[in-house]
Amino acid sequence: MDERTIRELIEEVRAGRWSRRSFIQAMVGLGLTAPMAAQTLSGAGIAHAQPKIAPFTPTRRGGGGPLKVLWWQAPTLLNPHFATGTKDLDASRIFYEPLASFDPDGNLVAILALEAPTAQNGGVAKDGLSVIWKLKPGVAWHDGKPFTADDVIFTWEYAADTATAATTIGSYDGIERVEKLSSHAIKIVFKKPTPYWSDAFCGFRGMILPRHLFDAYRGAKSREAPANLKPVGTGPYRFVDFKPGDIVRGEINPAYHVPKRPYFDTIEMKGGGDAVSAARAVLQTGEYDYGWNMQVEDDILQRLEQSGKGRVEIFTTGGIEHIQCNQSDPWREVDGERSSAKTTHPFLSDLTVRRALNLLVDRAAVQEQIYGRQGRTTANFLNAPSRVYSKSTGWEFDVDKANALLETAGWTRGADGIREKGGRKLRMVYQTSVNAPRQKTQAIVKQAAAKVGIEIELKSVVASVFFSSDAANPDTYPHFYADLQMYAIGLQGTDPRTLMNLYVSWEVASKENKWQGRNITRWRNEEYDRLYRAADTELDPVKRAALFIRMNDLVIQSVVVIPVLWRNGVSAAAVKLQGMELSGWDSQLWRLSHWVRQA
């Protein structure tokens, strides 16, 4: 990284488009010490932000009244191992907890564990084949039953069972066995050396289920469990009520395992609506305390902040807004299933067409005109951590070059101006969720595509449907009954493994796995599979990072997806709401037990 690039990054921090913490982390990755990186910012006139409110020290549990939060994509179930979107995971996190979570710096923070395993404390084996977790004693489920090693072992058995069709199976199928060392200690033995041992039982994908309530609903019966909609967890709040697609309510857990926590007496997660309405409800009217995922034009957010009732919270994530190119045929049904992996797309199977589309996405316009400080342009699917960011890719917006590519490949304009080849016209359906920035992005792409003879029909699906976990609903994004689709997906945890398994062949979404497979594009590539398997066992961090960079480059060179924007996390919070410690590597509710309202 040269001097010019560093100066550009400093200006990104000054403009609020990059956090101070992210800059320091990037500089540390280049060999600077954290104090030297901080001094670099100070020398540029960017002072360390001083806390405006003194740290909160609780004197008792509760007493904070109601906490009201808005998730404009409403949750549809409360079993984290069936979640098909962030909204289901976050709603589940109110009640369930993992052994450990990831803080804003990517560090493991013990939750249901007594401590995070390390090589120093004897928890992590040097050969990468095993990990020992010591569990926190005295923790009880909301129904009073004790939390023990049996629950952790059961969660592995449940999630790893292919008949369960859990969306988290990829985090657990590499485990050979989980040994019970005592009532509050387990040893995880992996099938092979596992560098990212903190995938299972940690963060988004690590929430522990109570064996005594789910044991009767293993495998094929997993969808019948009453607790899928009425959770009994160990978290700071107990379940009160849930209306799928609408609202989740919880009340304080009087026996919560953290002393004098939580602060709030009740929690209400209201779902549905849209991002603009959610932003107004927090920033302008003050009706709600917190709003998730403020996917609203940045100029609107800045105007709403002027009311003085709320603030916008921006934090670094690994999230990527991207357009997916369907590799299967969404318009032909095979064995009762459209977009079957047994088919190939009638024209997106042509790499030239995908390359032309890649040239028609004006990322700079999307960033400048719509998202502003909420994101950065990128040519990569994998953007974080910095060690896996590829420098071999690039993007450009060039209508003339796209025209030339299609012409050379034999896609000629018909009488109606639409390009065709072999009797197939370049007519596409491009879908996404209902959301103003996404509809504006669609319009930018459609306008450019029309200039080269590609006709695009825009489809917008209500977010509660598009991100639904309903296997019977054909309009969900895992079904992918369109040619192109766009949404954002984040890095769940700090390791690329959980993001890059979106392209392995064994994760293809299908009717057989109830569309729970994570490979939505249906792309399959033997070299990619080999790279992924190699990264799964590579203990050398430098060699492992190189494997992930190569995976990213394969996906980008093949134009399986078109990256649009490297998204920052953007939320809205009431002025007095504190203690969130928002992390781009975990649920925004990972620290819910410590949220407070201060004077």
Task: Round the Cα radius of gyration to an integer and report it.
Answer: 24 Å
Strand content: 15-25%
SS elements, strand count? 21
Overall mean confidence score, pLDDT: 92
State the separation between the terminal residues, measured CA to CA: 44 Å
Main sheet, how many strands, which sense, barrel? Answer: 11 strands, mixed
Uncertain segments of ≥5 residues (pLDDT<50)? 31-36, 47-53
Structure classification: alpha+beta
Helix content: 25-40%
Tally of helical segments: 16
The shape, in one word, is globular
Polypeptide structure, described:
The chain has helices spanning 3-14, 20-29, 34-43, 86-93, 149-160, 211-214, 275-284, 298-305, 351-359, 363-371, 399-408, 436-450, 463-466, 497-500, 526-537, 541-557; strands spanning 66-71, 100-102, 108-110, 130-134, 175-182, 185-190, 237-243, 247-252, 266-271, 290-291, 310-325, 375-376, 412-413, 419-421, 424-425, 427-433, 455-461, 484-489, 561-574, 577-578, 596-597. It is of the alpha+beta class. The strands form 5 sheets. Strands 1, 7, 8, 9, 10, 11, 12, 16, 17, 18 and 19 form an 11-stranded mixed sheet that branches. The longest helix is centred in the last third of the chain and has 17 residues, at 541-557. It is globular, with a radius of gyration of 24 Å. The relative contact order is 0.15.
